[in-house]
Amino acid sequence: MIPEPRFYLKDPKSQEPTLIYMDVKYTASEGPQRFTLTTGEKILATAWSFASQRAIAGKQKPMSSSLNFWLDKMANTFKEEFRNFQIDGIVPLASELKERVNSKLNILPVSIKEAAPQKLSLFPFIEQYISDCTPIKKEATIKTYWGTYRRMKQFAETLAKRSFEYDDITIEWRSQFIKFLQSRGIGRNTEGKHIKTVKVFMNEATERGLNTNLSFRSKSFQKPAEDVERIFLTKEEIETLANLDLSDDKTNDVVRDYFIISCYTALRYSDVVRLKKENIKDEVLIVRTVKTGQEVVIPISSHVRRVFEKYNYELPKAPCNQISNRCLKEIGKKAELNDPVIVTKTIGGNKKTATKEKWQLLTTHVGRRSLISNSILDGINTSSIMLMTAHKSLRAFQSYVRISQQQNAEALKKYSIFS
Known about the structure:
CATH topology of the largest domain: hpI Integrase, Chain A
Radius of gyration: 27 Å
Number of strands: 10
Structural class: alpha+beta
Strand order of the largest sheet: 1-2-3
Strand content: 5-15%
CATH architecture of the largest domain: Orthogonal Bundle
Oligomer: single chain
CATH class of the largest domain: Mainly Alpha
C-alpha cells in the first residue's frame, strides 16, 4: 500500500506567508520512516485550507490553481517513486526515496527539524479546524462542531482548567465529560453526538501529526446511543392529511403539501424544498441529494403529481425546517392523529417515560420514515428501497423501519406460506 502524502504549513499562526511542506509517514523493514520535503512555496494561512491541504481556490485567487497543481505533482511523484521501489520488492528508507524525488522535482531537501510545523494545542487546533471546514462543510455540521467545542470549554471550566491537551482525552475523560453533559440535562443521543464530534477532532489532529494519544479509538470510547420511539404514518393517515382542508391557513397548507411529497418520495426536507419542474423526467423525479450528493430516481405517485399540479409546477417557498415542524404538529392535531405513543428517553442520565399523542411527534423527517416503512409493509424489496433513498448501509436503513409486530404480521398474511 502506498502512503498518502500530506501538506502542512510550517507556521500556521504566522501573519506572513509561511512555507508549505510535504510530509509522509510509513513503516519500512528498518522501522518507522518520515519523509519530509519542502515545496519551495509559501502561502498566507488565511489562504490555506487545512481540511483539503491545498490553497483555497476561487476567482479571487487565480494563483491557487497553479500552486495546487504543483502540490498534486509533488504528491504524484512521491507515489510514483514509492511504487517503483515496491516493484523491486523494496519498501525504501526515507533518505533513499527523498534522493529520487528530489532529482525528479529539482528541489533542495530540507531537514525534518527545519520543516517541522508549529504544534497547536487542542483547543486552538479545534478552532482552526472548524474555521478550515466552514467553507467546505454544511452549515449544520459546523454548528455541531461549535456546539461540542463550547461544551468542551464549559467542562474545562468546571475543572478550573483553561484547556485540555491531547493526552487528557482518555476513556476516563469520556466518562467524566458524559457526566458533565448529564448534569446539563442533555439527552443520551445528544451525548453521543458530542462524543462522536470529539472523536472527529482527535482523529483529524492525529492525521495531522499533532496527537499520538489513541485512547479515542478504543471501543470503550464509543458514543452513547439509545433507540427512541420514532413514528411513521400509515397510508391511511397520510391520506387523511392530504385531504385536510387548510385553505384558511396558507403556511400550513404549504407545509402539508411538502410533507405529502416527502411521504411519497422519502426525500429529506432539504431536498423536498428544492424541487422544481426540471426534476421531473417523464414519470420519475431525478434529484441530487443535498446531504450525500447522490442522485436518486423516484417514481412520481399520483399524490406527488397532484401537489405539483396544484401549484402549476412552481412550488411555493417553504418555511424553514423549525417552523415546518411546528406547523406539522398543528396540522396533525387538526387531523386528529391522536393514537397514543409511549416514548422513553434518557435525559440527564435518567430514563423518563411519557405517553404522547401521535401528532405531538410529527416532524418533517417522519415523511421519509413513512415511505420506507410503508414500502416494507407493501413487500417492496429492501435493495430497491435503499437505491431510491440512497442508503449505503443496511444498518442505517433499518433505523427508518418503524413497523410494529402487529403491522408486520398483517403484511405477511398476503404471502402463500401464511394463507
